[in-house]
Design a protein that fits this description.
2 domains, mainly alpha, two-stranded antiparallel sheet, Serine Threonine Protein Phosphatase 5, Tetratricopeptide repeat
């Protein structure tokens, strides 16, 4: 069991499956969490003593209550959501629906109570986290310097010349998530380096802490850098080193950073600082947060359901946000409290708050009794809370948040004792745990198998095997989707194949496949406005005027303040001689685009002139 718990913490942030899976960065992580939760449930009857000992501690009891409340609220919010597919299964990019949330909470609570019941278990868990952090950090550092044997480098590079930036995503899919994860191994490894007796582990922990801090800086994440500083302050407050040591360390870090920054190796980092200088407010976040609060106010108690933000937010997006960022797709509030508030309402926020308060109180109370746990996880908890004021949780970062909170909450728990657990309790735990474990295992299998089928289609299309791709695509469509979809992506791919086909029959055949995929995409709540707009483009290519108008108007309904469908609709109405309607849509599109795209203003000016509203 010790190996399995440590292995889960080690594998979860590292696992990737490019080419094997379509959503290769998040699907394997969610599947691992589901299997971890299944293992926890199957083993619960054998660990009742440690669960009872954990619950007997004051803050451990509060933590478990918060976990239970979170699971109940997530279930109710998903059940009541207007977008059940998103609320239960989650979006394709994040997959943090209620099912994943349940698995995350169960796996984190299981490992937390198991680890704090023994000093040796806790030490091996921290060793596993340190090893994972070291490997992830080295990979991220290599990505910054242009070496990546796994992922395409163009996927995380932006800009040209001296202003080209590289934001390493590591193994987490995005630089912000990567950096937010690294705060945990940085401080866990730092604590291990000063408490470990074995020389090999002591050196590895030191390397992990330093590599993690470097990778956070190279990620270009301002929120994570601020989090690293805040975590370091908490660490200093706990350890209370001499002022001289703190000053010397700070000067050494600043000097090292300055040398790197001005060196040729720091070119991409200097480019990132230049980009930050042009966008000091952090992009759309301030307006996005304001609109998210307005959205949450409409459903304050249980929210809109986990992961339903992307489908519901366009109805609440303000004109100011749309004008400032006309082509942005806002998939989340990029703020942990607002994400919970919009997803699960005040009850979800209350559950999160109780878990965090239990963690902080338990950590402070156990700072002398369980020094390793507090040094390893309390600075990491402080850091992750700062980092997630500017980002949302994904499955691995959510797991480490609740794992760290659970270890801190139970840090003062008594050693588990052999208690006379009634046989009926143990039998009920065995039956219920195994049944739930089987359900989670089936869920993990369905998730991975469906994702694998979509990846198979993609691989065959990339290889030019169109016949095989069609067969694989039909197989994928014949299976229940398990929340994994790729209709919008494949619609665009098949449309491109149709355009490049020379034979008329092939062109018609692949066009029909593209149209079918585009239609299916409009039945999915995720990226609904993009799905309808894509369908309008395909209808226009067939000279289907009525179908084009219908799809464009549906895109407008899905995202009222997105300029692009209104721009297209204005041109369509003008071509059909419906000048007054065209003028209204043109004026609205120009307002929403706010001059960001000169082509929009120039083409719509012609529409307005033809309608007689411009000289």
């Amino acid at each position: 069991m010790l190996f399995l718990t440590a292995a889960l913490a080690f594998v979860l942030p590292l696992i990737l499956a490019p080419r094997l899976l379509f959503y290769y960065d998040i699907t394997p992580k969610v599947a691992i969490l589901m299997l971890g939760a299944a293992l926890a449930l199957a083993a619960v009857c054998f660990q009742l003593e440690s669960w009872i000992a954990f619950a007997r501690s004051r803050w451990g009891r509060w933590y478990l209550g918060a976990i239970a409340l979170s699971m109940v609220v997530a279930g109710i919010a998903a059940w009541r959501s207007a977008e059940p597919a998103l609320a239960w299964y989650g979006s394709n990019w994040r997959r943090m629906g209620a099912l994943t949330e349940w698995a995350t909470l169960l796996a984190a609570a299981w490992i937390a109570q198991y680890a704090v019941s023994s000093g040796q278990r806790l030490r091996w868990l921290i060793r596993a986290i340190s090893c994972a952090g070291l490997l992830a950090s080295l990979y991220g550092i290599a990505q910054y310097f242009g070496w990546d044997p796994i992922l395409p480098r163009d996927a995380y590079g932006v800009g040209e010349g001296i202003y080209r930036i590289v934001r390493p995503p590591g193994t987490l899919g995005h630089s912000d998530y990567f950096a937010a994860f690294l705060v945990w191994p940085v401080f866990a490894a730092s604590a291990l380096s000063v408490t470990e007796q074995a020389r090999g582990w002591k050196l590895l922990a030191g390397f992990s802490a330093v590599a993690g801090a470097i990778a956070i800086v190279l990620s270009g994440s301002r929120g994570a850098l601020l989090a690293l500083i805040c975590g370091a302050i908490v660490r200093v407050m706990l350890k209370r080193p001499s002022v001289r040591l703190v000053a010397a360390t700070s000067l050494a870090v600043i000097a090292s950073f300055a040398v790197f920054y001005i060196s040729p190796a720091g070119e991409r980092l200097r480019a990132r600082v230049h980009w930050i200088g042009e966008d000091a407010a952090g992009g759309a976040r301030l307006l996005l947060w304001r609109d998210s609060v307005s959205m949450a106010a409409r459903k304050p108690l249980i929210g809109y359901g986990p992961e339903a933000f992307s489908a519901e937010f366009p109805k609440f997006e303000s004109v100011a946000l749309a004008r400032a960022y006309p082509d942005f797709y806002h998939e989340s509030p990029h703020n942990l409290p607002l994400d919970v508030l919009t997803s699960e309402g005040v009850f979800g926020l209350l559950a999160l708050g109780v878990a965090l308060l239990a963690a902080i109180a338990g950590g402070v109370q156990a700072r002398n009794r369980n020094r390793l746990a507090v040094l390893a996880f309390l600075p990491g908890l402080a850091a992750t809370l700062v980092a997630h004021q500017f980002a949302v949780l994904i499955a691995p970062t959510a797991f480490f948040l609740y794992l760290g909170a659970g270890i801190l909450a139970g840090a003062g728990a008594e050693e588990p004792k052999v208690l006379p657990v009634p046989r009926l309790w143990r039998a009920a735990a065995l039956v219920g745990g195994v049944a739930a474990a089987v359900a989670l295992t089936i869920g993990a299998y369905r998730l991975v198998s469906q994702d694998y089928l979509l990846a198979k289609v993609q691989r065959r299309m990339d290889a030019g095997d169109l016949t095989g791709a069609v067969q694989a695509y039909r197989t994928a469509l014949s299976r229940p989707d398990a929340g994994v979809t790729g209709d919008l992506y494949f619609s665009r791919r098949w449309s491109k194949v149709a355009m490049e086909s020379q034979a008329p029959i092939a062109k018609i055949y692949y066009s029909q496949i593209a149209a079918g995929a585009a239609t299916r995409a409009t039945h999915q709540p995720e990226e609904l406005q993009n799905a309808w707009y894509n369908l309008a483009i395909l209808a226009a290519a067939r000279n289907d005027s009525s179908g084009t108008e219908y799809a464009i108007r549906a895109a407008v309904d899905a995202a009222p303040n997105w300029y692009k469908p209104r721009w297209t609709l204005a041109r369509l109405l003008s071509a059909e001689g419906r000048a007054p309607e065209a003028a209204l849509e043109a004026a609205r599109a120009i307002e929403l685009n706010s001059g960001k795209d000169p082509e929009v203003a120039s083409t719509l000016a012609k529409v307005l002139r033809s309608a007689g509203t411009l000289p």
